[in-house]
Fold this sequence. Notes:
Blueprint: E1 3-9, E2 13-20, E3 25-32, H1 37-49, E4 63-67, E5 79-80, H2 83-94, E6 100-104, E7 109-114, E8 120-125, H3 134-141
Parallel strand pairs: 1-4, 4-5
Antiparallel strand pairs: 1-2, 2-3, 6-7, 7-8
Amino acid sequence: MKYFAGCDVGSTYTKAVILDENGKIVASTIQRSKINAEQSSVQAVDSCLSQVDGISKPEDLSYIVGTGYGRNRVPFAHENVSEISCHAMGVHVTNPEVKAIIDIGGQDVKGIAVAPDGTVKNFAMNDKCAAGTGRFYEAMAHPLK
């Protein structure tokens, strides 16, 4: 069986997933990102590897993609792809009728227009203020518990 992985090193959270050759999710994790993006990626992928029998190290995976704010710090990635492109193709594969995405990240918000083939038609993002980002919403939610 072949396995494939993706590791999204965001400013706030690091996410990883392992898929089997049929596209089924066999492992996933979401962890708070550390200051060191490489350390975050290693811990997230290790967490996923521990969930799948028969594989124990990144070299056991057929292909690994790094994405997100820290995508260039995923040491075992075969390829680094922007989260904007990953969002567009991921949504297209899941539901080709979706034409627009709003990504509320830890430090920014992106609007992405998806072309009919799943590529990015256009995108825009905030550039001056973090209000309205995931970190802002998280901070506002704590007093409301």
